[in-house]
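Reopening this ticket.

The earlier resolution said the output was attached, but the attachment link was broken on my side. Pasting everything inline this time so it's all in one place.
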Amino acid sequence: MQVLFVHQNFPGQYRHLAPALAARGHQVIGLGEAANVKQTRPQWPGVSIYGYTLKPPGEKTGEPVADLVLPAIRRGQAVAQGLTQLREKGLKPDLICAQIGWGEAIFTKDVFPDAKLLLYCEFYYRARGADSSFDPEFPPRGNAAFRVHLMNLPLTAALEVADAGHAPTEWQRGQFPEHHKNRISVIHEGIDTARAAPGPDARVTLPDGRELTAANRVITYLTRNFEPYRGFHVFMRAIPEIQRRCPDATIVMVGGDRVSYSPRPPAGQTYRDRLTQELGSRIDWSRIVLSPPLPYSTYLALLKISSVHVYLTYPFVLSWSLLEAMSSGCAIVASRTPPVEEVMKHGEHGLLVDFFSTAEIAARVEELYRNRDLAARLGAQARQSVVERYDLQTQCLPQLVGLVEKFKA
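Inline output:
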């Protein structure tokens, strides 16, 4: 079977599935934005990778239709042009797997009408009940409900032409319109539990040259970017109380200063700058490490030596990092928000807290920090749950391969 993957940052969520299908004898092709895929070409044996060219975006107009919908249409057109070039080279996929976001999937079946289309259904936006309107500190501005509808237009266009989809959690699937849900399977991309595993003897060398081990009593907070959607502002405000309760702890925070999902701060500002200025001398900065993103192996080693790991999120896409922390046997304090509650039970896999309560976060961190028997028990049970439900090799990858191979002619 000829399988084509479309993802602007290929491989993205297909990093395990694409090479697994190639290893099973399928002809596998990856298509991503040319500027992004140049770095991935050598890493995926058996997968032929191509790039599509996206024209530079124009200036924002302030008009929601122009700024939210037209970029998705332009990206869809760029993908269609790239697919047309591949068709002229003889490509004729049986199945196209595409990320639902960004508009990439909209015109795929116009180029290959006989191909089946399987969407990765990451998220469908809601004006109420999910991320929008969740945080009163960042209330929706203007016609926010209109904006949500416009953000969903490219997703709806892709859903209308798709044959099936898959979502990583039940909650994420549940955000999609009712009449599409029966075509969406729930299969997570999978966690390499052999690699993300306990290792209390691990050592971590940080970018500043500092070396840490489990003996340093490390509290960790790890995210792609320091922003409100992942509770950065809340965790920062909890630090003074955490430091009072855990005076010998080293708090390591890893993330970037870009914005992935949250409202953008004024030009020239970052959320890290904002919170650093706000908290000032209330924090003992000598016991804080604020690190840029780390190599994956270093990131995993940091989880292995963590005494307590903190994960906070709006009701939004579940981060791989939470499941990797669970798989690593971390003692976790996490927000009582969906889809966290789908993968963690309070008192069984970790301790769940009110996202907004800095006092509760600090108290639960101290509880796990001091009660090492409880921390070890919850960490072991968290790992066992991930091994049983989300292990890459025994659970998720076989299910994803099976889903794809249902489309065999």
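Reporter confirms the inline version is readable. The chain has two domains: 2-190+393-405, 204-390. The chain has a mean pLDDT of 94.
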